[in-house]
Amino acid sequence: MARGSRNPQRQPPRQRAARLLMVPRVLALLCAGAAASVQAQAQVAMVDLPLEQLMQMQITTASRYAQTALEAPAAVSVVTADDIRLFGYRTLAEVLGSMRGLYISYDRAYHYLGTRGFATPGDYNTRVLLLVNGVRFNDNIYDQASIGSDFPLDLDLVDRVEFVPGPGSAVYGANAFFGVVNVITRDGRQLAGPQVSTEVGSHGSAKLRFSVGTVDAQGGDWLLSATRAATRGADQYYPAYDAPANHGGVAQRLDYDRSTQLFARMHREGLTLTLAHGERTKGVPTAAFSQVFNDPRSRFIDKSTRLAAEYTAQLQPSLAFTGRLHAGRYQYVGDYVYDYPPVTLNRDVSNGQWWGTEWQWVSTALARHKLSWGLDYRRDTRIEQLNIDLDPPAQHLDAHRKGNVLGLYVQDEFALSPDLTLHAGLRWGKQSGSAGAIHPRLGLVYWWNAATALKLLHGTAYRPPNAYERDYRVDLPGGVVEGAGLRSERVRTTELALEHAPTGASRVLLTAFRSAVTDLIAQDAAGSTDRLTFGNTRAVQVHGLEAEAEQRWQGGQRLRMAYGWQKARDPSQPQPLTNAPRHLLKVQWSDTLRPAPGSGGTAGRYAIEAIGIGSRSTLQGTRLPAHVLTHATYSTRIADVDVSVGVYNLFNRRYADPASFDIREEAIRQDGRTYRLKLTYAF
Q1: What is the DSSP string of 118-176?
Q2: What per-residue confidence (pLDDT) applies to 478?
Q3: Which residue of 191, 567, 667, 683 has the lowest C-beta tally within 10 Å?
């Protein structure tokens, strides 16, 4: 019924590193032999740049102003546009799933982001703040961070994705609980003219994008783009519904996905205007929320629109200003088929609308200090939740809410000495219906040498209950019947990180963290399997270790390995948390394939990515086995057309993700081997 219940260390010895590199080199030789006949044109891209230049890339998410990754008071992960093309990522979820410490779950409706071993069932990514060019993209009803096909931006338009782990409320306020994702888009000059892209793939998937980028005579930068995508989807088998009346448990033609994305961006003399719009219709094969199984009328519709205007100015040589005005609208429509009796089509509708403004000043007037301060304000002009039966007509919910969100913050980057910097921040925030809160952030960055930074970080964050958790009360199958008196969630995290870039071609990161969460808002069954409830649970603790190493060679080879060990638990419960893997492993290898001398051919690039996720518990306590997924892509240029071929889940591994309370199945089986062919032509 409800939409929303888902449920100081040294560098390793060179000899050890050399042994670790043998495996990807063998894989490289095997793949080179299979693809040597493909012709491609060598391209100078970011993947060929030395790491020293990449480490100097300006990131903006950690402190809301530009700084390098080594300078930032965080262990930042970055995926660039060239990474997206090289590894063939199709959604923002796949981009994030490639990052250190993150993992993805999918329930055939939405994608969910797990952060450092924490992914609570019933969470619409509410504990991660999603930004696009620094503007908040979480809606004002569910606080959802959309990262799947419902994300209203084509990945071809993304310049890079930054992820800052840990609490960020001292900088951004609510929802920056376990981390902040910032998607930075490309400029029109990077496209330099019209561009068309088309792709086809498994399960009847197809996609078409047309974009144009240009710079006008006055220096204005323009980017316009439209994308249409559709997937027929495969029939899905669910053992819980395996009966003759349910077509043997097979949901037919219900895993379809159709989406439209529109994007426009203009930049001129400090002024930037942005429009992003997305619509998606998704079939629901799981019969979520206690629906009638295998009914073709079951579907979810998501529509979102974002408008933003940003102005930046250097008011004085030592004072910079950034002002933003933004507005957004989000609509959800869920069609549910019930037999209570008679068979009834139930419609769940949510409408959210808001506008907001942000003002920030950054000053370097004081010696050894970089001060920033500002305010954020958001006015929720419309928060509506409606639940009705269409035939026969009946109304079960009509909830309305408005509200305000205000935050004031100040930060200081204080150079205590040439090799030691103190980052201190404090933010006061207040949201309608919740008490005001003050959240600090402290960070010490010690420069061991020019290539090594040791970071000690501490911060807190909060998340007030959202409108869905507060107001959605429907005493029908799949509905929420309790949840009054919810308190804001709070988290306190301490982290120690070491980043080391000894040469222009290598990088090592080690980090240890510990988080304590109190008053966690979680879902549970309310007495029976078809009713849900929200409530504050006891404290949850998460601690772990992460390591990442990257190496590049002049010949174009590149290796990145990341490993994470984390333990998330509720001290009051003997069993582990649901969907909380103990181990995460990421391995990426890429290289250039060059034609034989004298053949007249050209070169291309191939990439292999392996993602391993440890065993996880379901809500019923069953342990799902660990699995490793391997993806392979090859990209080249043929007759002025960029060609990309991708094979996902190369070895056709069978695996499943834990399901939430609103789904009858204990786990949702994921896709086997799939394919994609993508062609891009620039006029």
Answers
A1: B--TT--STTEEEEETTEE-S-SSS-----STTSSS-GGGEEEEEEEES--HHHH-TT-
A2: 61
A3: 683
Q: Residue for token digits 């979680």?
A: 522
Identity of residue 430 = K
Q: Is residue 435 part of a domain?
A: yes
Phi and psi at 524, nearest 5°, equal -155, 165
- Say which residue the tokens 């490639």 belong to: 98
What pLDDT is recorded for position 46?
A: 37
Residue 173 lies in a domain: yes
267: CB partners within 8 A, 6+ apart: 187, 188, 220, 221, 273
Residue 510 falls inside a structural domain? yes
Average per-residue pLDDT for the chain: 88
pLDDT of residue 141: 96
- Looking at this protein, which amino acid is placed at residue 222? W
pLDDT for res 409: 96
Taking residue 32's Cβ as centre, other Cβ atoms within 10 Å add up to 14
Could you say which residues of the chain have pLDDT below 50? Answer: 4-52, 529
Predicted TM-score (pTM) of this structure: 0.90
Nearest-10 Cα torsion for 16, 17, 23, 28: -160
Residue of 518, 344, 474 lying closest to 4 (CA atoms)? 474
Other CB atoms within 10 A of residue 69 CB: 23
Name the residue with tokens 């000894």: 502
CA dist., res. 274 & res. 326, Å (int): 9
The pLDDT score that the predictor gives to residue 536 is: 85
Residues 355, 330: Cα–Cα separation, whole Å: 12
604 strand-pairing partners:
593
* pLDDT for res 538: 72
Number of H helices, E strands in the chain: 8, 38
Which structural domain, as residue segments, surrounds residue 568?
A: 14-682
Q: What is the tally of structural domains in the chain?
A: 1
Tell me, yes or no, whether 205 lies in a domain: yes
Which pLDDT score is estimated for 652?
97
Residue 16 is inside which H or E element, if any? helix 14-20
pLDDT of residue 17: 33
